[in-house]
Amino acid sequence: MEFMKGIIEKEIAGIQEIGEAKEGALAKTEGMIHSIRRMGEISFVILRRRDGLLQTVYEEGKGDLDIRGLKEGDAVQVLGVVRKEERAPHGAELRLEKVRILSEPSEPLPLPVDKWKLSSSLEARLDMRPISLRNVRERARFKIQEGIVKGFREFLYGQGFTEIHTPKIGAKSAEGGANIFKLAYFHKPAVLAQSPQLYKQIMVGVFDRVFETGPVFRAEKHNTKRHLNEYVSLDLEMGYIDGFEDIMGMETALLQHILKTLETEYRAELDILKVTLPSADQIPAVRFDEAKKLVSEKYGRPIRAPFDLEPEEEQLIGKYFKEEYGADFVFVTHYPSKKRPFYAMDDESDRRYTLSFDLLLNGMEITTGGQRIHDYKKLLEKIYDRGMTEEGLETYLDAFKYGMPPHGGLGIGLERLTMNLLGEDNVREASLFPRDMNRLKP
Amino acid sequence: MEFMKGIIEKEIAGIQEIGEAKEGALAKTEGMIHSIRRMGEISFVILRRRDGLLQTVYEEGKGDLDIRGLKEGDAVQVLGVVRKEERAPHGAELRLEKVRILSEPSEPLPLPVDKWKLSSSLEARLDMRPISLRNVRERARFKIQEGIVKGFREFLYGQGFTEIHTPKIGAKSAEGGANIFKLAYFHKPAVLAQSPQLYKQIMVGVFDRVFETGPVFRAEKHNTKRHLNEYVSLDLEMGYIDGFEDIMGMETALLQHILKTLETEYRAELDILKVTLPSADQIPAVRFDEAKKLVSEKYGRPIRAPFDLEPEEEQLIGKYFKEEYGADFVFVTHYPSKKRPFYAMDDESDRRYTLSFDLLLNGMEITTGGQRIHDYKKLLEKIYDRGMTEEGLETYLDAFKYGMPPHGGLGIGLERLTMNLLGEDNVREASLFPRDMNRLKP
User: Fold this and answer.
1) What pLDDT band is residue A175 in, cutting at 50, 70 and 90?
2) Within the 221-280 window of chain B, which residues sit less than 8 Å (CB to CB) from chain A?
3) Which of A177, A301, A374, B414 has its CA 20 to 30 A from that of B343?
4) Is the peptide bond before A442 cis (omega within 30 degrees of 0)?
């Protein structure tokens, strides 16, 4: 009987190992041929690996190796001699001794993925996603996106949050509204989750603090640079708060941790993209009505709709706080009640407003959060006030009927945050396979 | 201007801190009243917190505190004096000085959540999920489920895998078949992802090694104890493999890491549930046809369908390897080609079988994996052989046309693994809010 005991070890060196190896050492590695530059008797064969680009060198007439058959897109295993070379990306290159082709493409690459910057349009790059992502800059964005999610989870584990997984198919929408994808579930009408909102609140009654990272679905008929119809939501919800300031404080510390994770563990990708991260050391918090007034006064923009915040106003708020306080992030608090869902807690001192907030980064909303109603009777009142009924909310309401601590939470749009951190102007740049009104594939 | 600078610190002690505090120290904590036992002049008020149960004690006539108004389901903040007490769960209890009620339930609890074991039926517990999960044993399962996912990701980050997020709504199903949920996507026909299979393969061409944890959707008309129609799939895919043994080796090491994570970081929950974890130190690997023969011979069960594995046969394979080798896990390799999807790599030495495997735990499949076809022409051949067309697979095929390394991967059903590790007999016990043919809520 054969037994599996663990990873089948191989003598494959990574780029760091090759960089640290002694001059003259033999090293074996593998990767995909990213580019070949033929310079007469010498050729540079650049390998693309998960840990970066590795320069290998072929010298004609050395040994009986012949690289004429090699081409971009070949997956290869190579054996070579380590040579220190300051101009090489990691301070060392490999002088090729042997090359074994593991697999070959059928056609030449349709995009010059080895170029530093792909010049193709966004549409073309999205259509050719499996290939365009092989460009080192294109893929670096998604490594950074990984870092955001990793930092999010690590921080919350450390703060006593429990990770949960809630269903994406349900009988009724959590938040109501028209922007819901509908489907037939064994002949019963069903919907796709717009957010894990009601479930994460229910789970505060179980674990006090919970988080989830997962897809959400919005059938919004928006085709803008900042909307996706499916995106990844980073959600958290926490009990035993004194007020929504506790949520903003938690998010501030969370962002600090995420930024630190990127600075330390994703340095290479930040450098590839020449990204300078914003600072979340101190984030100003300003009331919704106050923010509108400040912006109106400074930029001479009349307040047209006192209970609405238009995208241009968001941008100006971002500009204002950058100019006045050097701030990249801004909390805008006390959103109008009529703009918030039924579960938002109203401000007792002025019930037109809620104890809630948005977080703006560079003038764009990346988070919505706030305190929720925890009292069963107040929740019912709010539901009736809105002309809603308890139908479809029975289980949610049970959690409150039998006792819930004061609580609140937030949701961060992963692609929005990624886009803003990277300084991209279209959220599709921050989604591997974006879904919008016109794009259902690849 | 107000600035948020990080977590708003509070003097709230956790259970561990209280256990480590000095006799007579004052401590403030918060939680939900899990149970009240009134014993005449003394009452025990058990608080449920995210970190466990804490015993607090009220003595009549001490101070001007009166706990007559307290009830189960109240969320409270308490101040008390630490008293070492060996019989208390964490070696210390809190003698109450002050109690502040943060919120109150509207009705008495409909389930005795403070009982050690809830006696209600599975159906009743699922219907009342927000409340039944407040039982300490019920919730412990999902803490352990968190540990599985945490261990999965930690291990793969360490092995150079990149985490990806792929869309759950698509134009066409990855794997074909009838078990697909359909929906209208802005008037275009669309489907929910049965797995991230094609995307994770595409991403091997970008990052060499990738993983994803996310929901998958199967419209299977099975109503069994081991099927869910929505579940969480732990997926990985890796390039530059020599054979599918590399995948099995990686999974073995992965399971070892997950089990170690549970043993060390989730000890409390394992103890609550009295779970003894299986061993993944060495996992036997047996061919599909050989396994059928062994089981047939030992248990006198004639082989009816040589290319099928029935659930009872899986169970017997589990039994056989437990009896003969003391093994909890078994890899069953070389599944018949006709039982595997088009992308599975056939065994060149006998094309009726594939270079693939299932992993059984206690006789139940928890993983399907294997090597995939990486050669563009062979992949096309297989597609045509199956009577399929390239339609809807264009982007997937592009990845191969322009070069893909040899690769393979696997998917683990999170709820199945959880269920088996916990020794539960119904997969619904391992899903917070299960979705089956009859259950679309809560």
Assistant:
1) low
2) 221, 229-230, 232, 239-240, 242, 245-246, 248-253, 256
3) B414
4) yes
Handedness of CA A147, A150, A155, A156 (dihedral sign): positive
Of all residues in chain B, the one with the smallest CA distance to A134 is: B206
pLDDT at B414 over 90: yes
Residue that is written with structure tokens 């009654």 in the block? A205
pLDDT tens-digit profile of A261-280?
999 999 999 999 999 999 99
pLDDT for B67 equals: 86
The closest CB to that of A103, out of B133, B249, B404, belongs to: B404
Residues 6+ apart with CB under 8 A from A442: A126, A127, A129, A130, A433, B202, B394, B395, B396
Question: How many angstroms separate the CA of residue A378 from the nearest CA in chain B?
Answer: 11
Q: What is the pLDDT of residues B340-398, one digit of tens each?
A: 999 999 999 999 999 999 999 999 999 999 999 999 999 999 999 999 999 889 999 99
Distance between CA atoms of residues B31 and B25, nearest Å: 19
- pLDDT-derived band of residue B176, with 50, 70 and 90 as boundaries? low
Find the distance separating the first CA and the last CA of chain A, reported in whole Å.
Answer: 43
Report the gap between the CA of B148 and the closest CA in chain A (Å).
Answer: 11
| A87 annotated ligand-binding residue | no
Tokens of A83: 């040579």
In angstroms, the separation between the Cα of residue B385 and the nearest Cα of chain A is 20
What count of CB pairs under 8 Å joins A to B? 358
Contacts of A64 (CB under 8 A, 6+ apart): none
Contact B103 A404 (CB under 8 A): yes
| Token digits of residue A21 | 């190896």
pLDDT at A308: 87
Q: Kindly give, in sequence order, each residue whose CB lies less than 8 Å from that of residue A58, ignoring residues fewer than 6 positions away.
A: A42, A43, A44, A45, A65, A67, A96
Query: Please, what is the Cα angle at B292 between B289 and B294, to 5 degrees?
Result: 110
- Å from B442 to nearest chain A CA? 6
Predicted pLDDT at A173:
65
In this prediction, does ipTM exceed 0.90?
yes
Residue B45 is inside which H or E element, if any? strand B42-49
Q: Compute φ and ψ for B371, nearest 5 degrees.
A: -80, 150
User: Which chain A residue has the Cα nearest residue B172?
Assistant: A441
Q: What is the mean pLDDT of residues A289-314?
A: 93
Q: Strand B169-170's sheet: what is its strand order?
A: A169-170, A188-192, A182-185, B182-185, B188-192, B169-170
Burial class (CB in 10 A: 0-12, 13-18, 19+), A269: buried
Indicate the SS3 state at residue A278. Answer: coil
**pLDDT surpasses 60 at A63:** yes
Interface of A with B in 98-117 (CB under 8 A): 102-107, 109-110
Contact yes or no for A440 and B185 at CB 8 A? yes
The answer to whether B233 and B254 have CB atoms below 8 angstroms apart is no
Min Cα distance A151 → chain B (Å) is: 12
Could you tell me if B417 lies within 8 Å of chain A, comparing CB atoms?
no
Taking CA atoms, A138 is separated from A14, A259, B418, B419, in Å, by 21, 20, 37, 40
Nearest of A435, A170, A192 to residue B188 by alpha carbon? A435
* pTM exceeds 0.90: yes
Mutate to test the interface with B, among A165, A261, A398 (most CBs of B within 10 A): A165
DSSP secondary structure of B348-359 = TT-TTBBSEEEE
Residues of A in contact with B206 (CB under 8 A): 130, 133-134, 139
pLDDT tens-digit map of B308-344: 898 899 999 999 999 999 999 999 999 999 999 999 9
How far is residue A80's CA from residue A99's CA, in Å, rounded to a whole number? 9
**Structure tokens that stand for A209 in this block:** 């603090």
